[in-house]
Amino acid sequence: MTKTIQPADNQFLPEASFDDPQEARAHLKSRLAAAFWHFAGKGFDEGIAGIITVRDPEHTNTFWTNPITVPFAHMTPDQLIRVDGPSGVTVEGEGVVNLPAFSIHAEIHAARPDTQAAIHLHTNYGRAYSSLGKLLEPITQDHTAFFEDHAIFDDFTGIVFDRVEGKQIAAALGECKGVILRNHGLVAVAETLDAAVWWFTIFDTCCYISLIAQAAGTPIRLDDEVARLTAAQIGSHQVGYASAQRLLARAASHNPPPKA
Questions:
Q1: pTM of the model
Q2: Within a 13 Å sphere around the CA of 121, how many CA atoms are in the beta-carbon half?
Q3: What Cα–Cα distance (Å) separates residue 216 from each residue in 94, 137, 203, 210, 223?
Q4: From CA 208, how far away is CA 204, in angstroms rounded?
Q5: Confidence class of residue 7 from pLDDT cuts 50, 70 and 90?
Q6: Contact call for residues 143 and 214 (beta carbons, < 8 A)
Q7: pLDDT at 160
Q8: Is the pLDDT of residue 4 over 60?
Q9: In this protein, which residues make up the domain named Class II aldolase/adducin N-terminal (predicted)?
Q10: E strand map for the chain
């Protein structure tokens, strides 16, 4: 096995890279299964809603994702499916993807070739906050990670069944790490799956904190200059990647993959 370590930053954990696409694929699939275990532990698995897509390291117009019938807590790397971006057809594995959800993700990946992963789950706090139709205010340190780095898609018209609305959502997202879909929920993206897991997790937490702070009174908003400075300190990809490591390690320790 040829494996190299490239430092993301002197302060943070290094990211693994692989010369062999098969080894890279196996690594991604194991991390993706752990991501589903993590979100299952947070209660983010509801019905047939919820999807994570990860770009294949070799066939970059296809994406590893969850088949619609498998609960997050039961997911294994072998149960993941690889889906063609343009068509939504399964090209590897057994099962089908949630096509309305995938129509959003496919267009986000097409518009953002820098993104390895995109996450959209139906969380309670994300859905509740999305009904307000407004951006998160920088009221805590964690909120600043999304300051000037998230957007709103303000045009809910029902379940997404075609790529037109997917393109509109991708346009609303722009170059940001997250978008609030009004009356729907949250989407987070990143250049690695690990970072995307962290950003989605803390995105939902920030929605929760905003809701309870607003219910208690009038939150004190950080000045733009302070929010922008703090965002530069905690909103980078390297911080997102490093922050996800404990989440995924804990999830994997509770749900070890089956032995060969």
A1: 0.92
A2: 28
A3: 48, 15, 20, 10, 21
A4: 6
A5: very low
A6: no
A7: 62
A8: no
A9: 30-211
A10: 3-6, 15-18, 51-55, 62-65, 81-84, 90-92, 117-121, 150-153, 178-181, 185-190
Gap between the Cα atoms of 201 and 244, Å rounded: 9
Cβ–Cβ < 8 Å for 191, 115? yes
Amino acid, single-letter form, for residue 40: A
Burial 52-90 (b: 16+ CB within 10 A, else e): bbbbbbeeeebbbbbbbebebeebebebbbbbbbeebeb
Overall average pLDDT of the 204-231 stretch:
98
Token digits of residue 176: 């940001």
At the fourth CATH level, the homologous superfamily of domain 21-250 is Class II aldolase/adducin N-terminal domain (3.40.225.10)
Q: Which of 58, 41, 189 is nearest to 123 (CA)?
A: 41
C-alpha 181: how far from chain center: 14
Position 246, amino acid: R
Strand partners of residue 84 = 62
**Residues sharing a CB contact under 8 Å with residue 92, sequence separation 6 or more, in sequence order:** 62, 81, 82
Distance CA 158, CA 21 (A): 39
**What amino acid is encoded at 112 in this protein?**
R
Average pLDDT over every residue of 105-134: 97
Phi-psi region of 37 (alpha: psi -120 to 50; beta: other; left: phi over 0): alpha
Rg (CA), the chain: 18
**Residue 62: band (very low, low, confident or very high) from pLDDT cuts 50, 70, 90:** very high
* Pair of tokens at residue 35: 């991501």
